[in-house]
Each structure stands twice: as structure tokens, then as C-alpha cells.
Design a protein that fits this description.
By secondary structure, this protein is an alpha+beta fold. The protein folds into 2 domains: 5-83, no CATH class; 87-123, no CATH class. Helix content is 26%, strand content 13%. It is built from 3 helices and 2 strands, in the order ββααα. The chain has helices at 39-53, 62-65, 90-104, and strands spanning 15-22, 25-33. Strands 1-2 form a two-stranded antiparallel sheet. The longest helix has 15 residues, at 39-53.
């Protein structure tokens, strides 16, 4: 994240400008800006990175998901993970369907190089009601 966490709460660095005059003429001005990252901000970022590295793509702690206790064949353990789904992200489905459409336009023996390719998904319309009802 290139921004100090405290900025997310509205903090802005203070600026102080000093002016130097010679015979009433401004010859130099120096503006000093408060450092964005202090020890506390660096510690918060490092802690956040460490936490993110400790969880899997489902939000579970890797120490649990990779533990032998989570093995469904370990009948002595009570730790279990169950899955539900599938659930569909229709925006992602539209994007991937369009990638497939694009690839199909090329001969099978000459697939396109999509390195750096980017698709944009646009939303049209609104939900009929509150999805949480």
C-alpha cells in the first residue's frame, strides 16, 4: 500500500515553509513536510502484510488449513473444512466468456498471446431489489 494507514482516517502531513529575504527580497523558501511514515505506521503496514501472508484465498489461517488436524482422513481431529457452492461472479463470467470469444477468433494452431491483455466489464441496469432481503 503506498499510503500510511493514518491517511485513511483523514490525517494529512503538516507543512512548514520558511522564507529567507535579503534586503527585503525573497531569495529562498524551503518547505518541509512531515514524514508520512513513522515507526508506528511502518509497524502497522508490516503487521498487515504478515497477516495477509498467513491467510488463504478463503480467509482461513494457513496454519489451520495446512495442519494435519484438518485432514479429513484424520478421524481423531474435530477440525473440518466444508465447501459450499458453486457461486457465480457474473461480472467475472462475462469477462472470461469474452476472453474465450476472442481466443476462438484465432486458428487453433496460432493462439493469441494475451500477455498484458485487459478486459473491462461494464455494469448495465440495477438490481430489482435489495440483495440482502
Amino acid at each position: 500500500m503506498g499510503v500510511a494507514p493514518r491517511r485513511l482516517n483523514g490525517w494529512e502531513p503538516a507543512e512548514v515553509t520558511e522564507y529567507e529575504h535579503v534586503d527585503g527580497v525573497l531569495v529562498r523558501s524551503i518547505t518541509r513536510c512531515e514524514a508520512e511514515f513513522d515507526d508506528e505506521q511502518r509497524e502497522l503496514l508490516l503487521a498487515s502484510a504478515e497477516f495477509e501472508a498467513s491467510i488463504d484465498s478463503n480467509g482461513h489461517f494457513l496454519a489451520e488449513t495446512m495442519s494435519p488436524e484438518a485432514d479429513p482422513m484424520n478421524y481423531k481431529s474435530t477440525l473440518r473444512f466444508t465447501a459450499a457452492g458453486p457461486f457465480f461472479n457474473y461480472a467475472e463470467k462475462a469477462r472470461l466468456d469474452d476472453v474465450d470469444r476472442y481466443r476462438a477468433e484465432f486458428p487453433k494452431d496460432s493462439p493469441p498471446n494475451l500477455n498484458g491483455a485487459y478486459w473491462v466489464v461494464e455494469k448495465h441496469g440495477e438490481l430489482a431489489g435489495d440483495p440482502n432481503d
